[in-house]
Amino acid sequence: MKLKENYKWSLVVPTSMGIRLTPTAQGQPIHTSSNLFMQATSAETNVANISAYLGLPVKALTTFVKGSPIAQFIKDNLRSRHIEYEGKDVEQGGPWGYRHQINIADSGFGSRGPRVWNDRSGEVGRTLSVKDFDLDRIFGQEGVQILHLSGLIGALSQETSRFCLELARAAKKYDTKISFDLNYRASFWKGREQELHDIFTEIASIADILVGNEEDFQLCLGVEGPEAGGKDIAAKIESFKGMIRNVKKSFPGASVFATTLREVVNANSHLWGAIMLEGENWHVIEPRPIHVLDRIGGGDGFVGGLLYGILKGWEPEKWPQFGWATGALATTFLTDYGQPADEDQVWSIWGGNARVLR
Length: 358
Hints:
This protein has 358 residues and is α/β, with parallel strands linked by helices.
């Protein structure tokens, strides 16, 4: 995949930032916890975090509540993660006005699965608009190698749907590659099914990299695929390949198609694999056991590692391998995002080497 050569940004992600609250007593459920740990989070910056931590220039396009201490917390957190940001400060509009989303989630433990409660009322990220950004400057003058879009932002509101579509069109105009992780959420699509199907279909039609699970491709794009979930995920690999072939037939403009494979043994033990089609070449990672501290962000970690491999110009075989390992890495952190120390640490995970490094 040939990337733009004159650029300021390796990766740009539009996102709606928020906070996640988790019990400080690891593995305990929310309803029994009186002490909570607060972190800044979003699916899209989870993806960007891999490239940012490994030294590539990354920018988030977002928006903030003006004067909010939570907004300041998020800005400081992004700086600490080496992620540049651009976005306007929106007036709160009083106590019942705008705020940043709140994600309340525990990690689960053993036979008790994790639970997530999303509180997105009044979310400032729903106001994201193309009029708040100079796209000709970002994509034309500064230059971007990959624009990564998520279906979470694409479906958040009518404004953000239009925002993502216009970003994709601008990226295409300036020869920036487009990555699109479909990230279907039923609650976001309710009452907007046809509208969002049309928008997602247009974005997918000009994307270069399409990522999604079996549910994403079927419910966002109407592409036939295997039944979601279940056991013995390895036995479904051929049906996953069939789904990807169907996606490629419907969206021939893309050159990379990827999906993760996850079978949950219990909250702390998963079988983790991946499939990628690059051109006519299949790259399959059979599901392997991984230990899970917190599963949230594992899929984002996979996409982050996949994109990092593409940005580094590696051989395609290494893209999903590195993504598999950065996804596995993310599940060993209490944060939603993986924080790789260096490439060697990631490749050690891929190689199954957990020995101490002195």
